[in-house]
Amino acid sequence: MELASYRQLQSPKIVDERVFAQVLNGISTRKYEIAVGKVPETFGISKSSVSRKFIEASARKLKELSNRDLGGDDIVAVFMDGKSFAENEMISALGVTMEGRKTVLGMVESHTENHRVCREFLQGLKDRGLRDEHKLLFIIDGAKGLRKGIQEVFGKQALIQRCQWHKRENVTAYLPKSQQGKFRKKLQKAYQQDSYKSAKKTLMAIRKELSLLNQSAVNSLDEGLEETLTLHRLRVFDHLGVSLKTTNAIESINSRLEHYTHRVTCWKNSSQRQRWVATALLEIEPSLRKIKGYKHLQKLRSAMNACDQQQMLANAA
């Protein structure tokens, strides 16, 4: 008599899904045979077949992410950041919809965050439907390649919010260790001011102090300073600063990638890296929470549409 359970286990789809989930969540292909040791050998589960099934399943995930239609999402903000894998970098983009939902827009592999790669990556997102009839807020860590790529693709439709955490750490890195904690707190307190005027005034006072200690720290503070205050100038910092003042949202995802990729001790090729990262990103995405203050995103959009980055910088000067 035919056993229904046997027929079910023989289903390629069911086996593929189970193998995919187990390997992704930590059982290596070498140990998979042991983990399912009670399953008769007639089912043909072996190290090579598990590897093959995972490659096929992860390739489908990579294709799904690369071809994802972005036209259905009303994106108001985009986080961008890179994560190192061996000698290469995986640059990812995380969108925030008007409802506050986080969605993975895509990723690209590069040796560095150079502007040509970033430009082609962002153009690819536009080609897949990333809408820019309304202005977009890009939250980045200050990488020049990212910034230049954003400007070339989106022009006046893009506003930049530089990560305040990275700015603080970059400045204090120039100081003696005995002074770092003190100025880290001062910079943190300055950025916590709700209004642009008070934040800028406090930062200028810190700049004056730094000039007596280290001119390189002053230069670091000056570089891109106004872009660290974009949310302040838009008058939404008190509502959305906690979510959009740093690149924490995407760095948190990069950190969670380690849960899925740390078992890979040798990245053999680009295909392997991209398959694993795309698969992990899609696995993480459903668990992402809405950003704090999402009910004020319409205020952010209205403020962005009413001005442009160049005008804000001119007014600030």
Structural features, described:
The protein is an alpha/beta fold and 317 residues long. It folds into two domains: 4-66, no CATH class; 75-316, no CATH class. It has helices at residues 4-9, 12-24, 29-35, 47-66, 115-127, 144-154, 164-172, 177-191, 196-211, 215-222, 230-233, 237-244, 248-261, 270-284, 297-305, 309-316, and strands spanning 75-85, 88-97, 102-110, 136-140, 158-162. It is globular. Residues 27-43 have low confidence and may be disordered.
Query: SSE order in H/E notation?
Result: HHHHEEEHEHEHHHHHHHHHH
Beta-strand residue percentage: 5-15%
What's the helix count? Answer: 16
Alpha carbon gyration radius: 23 Å
- When the domains are counted, the total is 2
> How far apart, in Å, are the first and last alpha carbons?
84 Å
Please give the number of β-strands.
Answer: 5
What's the mean pLDDT score? 84
